[in-house]
Amino acid sequence: MADATLTNEPSDLPDTQSYPPPFKPHPSDTLYGGYTRFELELEFVTMLSSPLYLNHLASLKLLQAPDFLAYLTYLQYWSRPEYIKYLNYPGPTLRALELLQEERFRTEILSPEVVGKLMQEGVRGSVEFQGR
């Protein structure tokens, strides 16, 4: 009887519309420090699920920079089904991307009370921003 364990061989992986899995970059992918753009953006959006990281970005005044805000808008593509499946924490990550589109949230995330509330709600599994 054949062993049912996955070996990460292409034949063992689900079909992803002929795209290689993210851990095996396509030979034509440009590498940035040894990583593909997909891998770098995945790591970054994953970090957005942390209220402490959002607070850190706000403290650096990045959440006021027009170029950074444009990048956050660009990252909305992670909400599409073909990308969401790669997120470890899709709920908090996508909620953070959504909240970061609001100017009021970008200001209020500097508050330790808002960060604490987001952390508590994230632990319960339902991140809601009610600081309005």
UniProtKB/TrEMBL annotation:
First-listed, main subcellular location of the protein, grouped into a coarse class: nucleus
Q: Which GO terms describe its molecular function?
A: transcription coregulator activity
Any one cellular-component term (Gene Ontology): mediator complex
Comp. bias regions, Polar residues = 1-18
> What domain of life is recorded for the organism?
Eukaryota
Q: Quick one: a GO biological-process term for this protein?
A: regulation of DNA-templated transcription
Region span, Disordered: 1-25
The leader peptide range reads none
Task: Print the keywords alphabetically.
Answer: Activator, Nucleus, Transcription, Transcription regulation
**Where can this protein be found?**
Nucleus
In terms of Pfam families, this protein maps to: Med31
Q: How does it assemble?
A: Component of the Mediator complex.
Record function comment = Component of the Mediator complex, a coactivator involved in the regulated transcription of nearly all RNA polymerase II-dependent genes. Mediator functions as a bridge to convey information from gene-specific regulatory proteins to the basal RNA polymerase II transcription machinery. Mediator is recruited to promoters by direct interactions with regulatory proteins and serves as a scaffold for the assembly of a functional preinitiation complex with RNA polymerase II and the general transcription factors.
Entry's family note: Belongs to the Mediator complex subunit 31 family.
Q: State what protein this is by name.
A: Mediator of RNA polymerase II transcription subunit 31
Originating organism: Letharia lupina
